[in-house]
């Protein structure tokens, strides 16, 4: 068993923060642990909590569609996770103390996967990883060094589902850019 598996098992029984009291399942990841690209969202929603997998609802379907159409990749070739592994009640934003308790799991995932490109999905995940107060409309589509990776923020798929076509068009552009950066980085 490698350490990524061990981390997943630890997260499945983790009680380091109060989200453990309301979750159905902790939600660790889906996809290829040897992926060159990693997508990171905020926290599990209702469907993810029930299934124990990230991005399995309508947002996940759109994520997979964009991976296929704009990156000509299969979703299984990518690694997908959230910053926080257990669902916050009523889909509220995770609290700082919950992020602090949980962040070690994401750090472990980043260390094991070592993606060349990270795409953060949505305002909250992007701002948390980049430690910035700038909003997603200002930072999306730009390239940020992040350890040995390049981080590219984009919108959360849910924003494209409920928003204007412009959001989806910008997401398509950001996904295509992520593919170019991944290819340029060998
Ligand atoms: S959110 Fe993270 S730190 Fe909190 S209980 Fe779940 S796995 Fe543990």
At the fold tier of CATH, the topology name is Uracil-DNA Glycosylase, subunit E
How many distinct folded domains? 1
Mean pLDDT: 95
State the shape: globular
Q: What is the H/E string?
A: HEEHHEHEHHEEHH
CATH architecture: 3-Layer(aba) Sandwich
Number of strands: 6
Radius of gyration, in angstroms, nearest whole number: 15 Å
Main structural class: alpha/beta
Termini separation:
29 Å
Which superfamily, in CATH terms, is the homologous superfamily?
A: Uracil-DNA glycosylase-like domain
Q: What proportion strand?
A: 5-15%
> Which strands sit side by side, in order, in the main sheet?
1-3-2-4-6-5
Tally of helical segments? 8
The largest sheet, given as strand count, sense and whether it forms a barrel, is: 6 strands, mixed
Q: What molecules are bound to this protein?
A: iron/sulfur cluster
Would you state the CATH class? Answer: Alpha Beta
Q: Summarize the amount of helix as a percent range.
A: 40-55%
Poorly predicted spans: none
């Amino acid at each position: 068993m490698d350490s990524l598996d061990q981390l997943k098992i630890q997260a499945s029984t983790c009680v380091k923060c109060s989200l453990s009291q309301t979750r159905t399942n902790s939600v660790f990841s889906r996809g290829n642990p040897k992926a060159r690209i990693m997508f990171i969202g905020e926290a599990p929603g209702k469907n993810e909590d029930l299934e124990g997998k990230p991005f399995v609802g309508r947002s996940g379907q759109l994520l997979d569609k964009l991976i296929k159409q704009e990156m000509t990749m299969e979703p299984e070739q990518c690694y997908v996770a959230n910053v926080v592994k257990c669902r916050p009640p009523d889909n509220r934003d995770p609290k700082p103390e919950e992020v602090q308790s949980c962040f070690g799991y994401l750090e472990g995932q980043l260390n094991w996967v070592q993606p060349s490109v990270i795409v953060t999905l949505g305002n909250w995940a992007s701002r948390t990883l980049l430690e910035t107060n700038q909003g997603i409309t200002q930072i999306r589509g730009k390239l940020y060094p992040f350890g040995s990776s390049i981080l590219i923020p984009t919108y959360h798929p849910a924003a494209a589902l409920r928003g204007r076509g412009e959001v989806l068009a910008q997401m398509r552009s950001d996904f295509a850019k992520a593919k170019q950066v991944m290819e340029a980085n060998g």
